[in-house]
Amino acid sequence: MAMEYNKSPISLREGKIFIDGIECVDSVKCEIKYTPDVWTGRQLGERTPSSRWLGVAITGTITRRRSTPWLKEAIAKYQKSKATPEFTIQGIMDDRNSDYYADNGSETVTCVGCVLTGDLNLINLDSAGDVLDDAISFNAKDIV
């Protein structure tokens, strides 16, 4: 039964991340962004410019608690073959108790042709003794 008076916005805690079809059970955060490449210009006599999408950049970041050596394995595979590792990354938002879910169901975004970018930490040590979170950035070729 839906709540009569209170709103139920999406809880960002309710979801899953998959890398190449395997659930990333140690994930703590995921962002996937679609950023248009926009041309803006004007012709003589125009008071306001026109804008047009020329392309897009699909980027993202997965933050996870390191519990498997998959990142080291991907790096080792690259070191041996020199072939760029490519992944499929999927995020599912499924907060069944939200107003959004009640109206629209779960939401899935699947990124293909994902290539890891930025720093990939091989080892981290810290005298403060905090837990290890890896923030792994990627570019995607497309979304399906």
Model description:
Strands 1, 2, 3, 4, 5, 6, 7 and 8 form an eight-stranded antiparallel sheet that branches. The chain has helices at residues 70-81, 99-104, and strands at 15-19, 22-23, 27-41, 50-65, 87-93, 107-117, 133-140, 142-143. The chain is mainly β and 144 residues long. Strand 1 (15-19) and strand 2 form a beta hairpin. The two termini are 33 Å apart.
What general form does the structure show? extended
Number of strands: 8
**Main β sheet profile:** 8 strands, antiparallel
Q: Could you give the order of the helices and strands?
A: EEEEHEHEEE
- Which structural class matches the secondary elements? mainly beta
Instruction: Evaluate the radius of gyration.
Output: 20 Å
Poorly predicted segments = none
DSSP helix fraction: 10-25%
Helix count from the secondary structure assignment: 2
Features:
mainly beta; 144 residues; 2 helices; eight-stranded antiparallel sheet
Describe the secondary structure blueprint for this structure.
Blueprint (H helix, E strand, L loop, with lengths): L14 E5 L2 E2 L3 E15 L8 E16 L4 H12 L5 E7 L5 H6 L2 E11 L15 E8 L1 E2 L1
Antiparallel strand pairs: 1-2, 1-5, 3-4, 4-7, 5-6, 6-7, 6-8
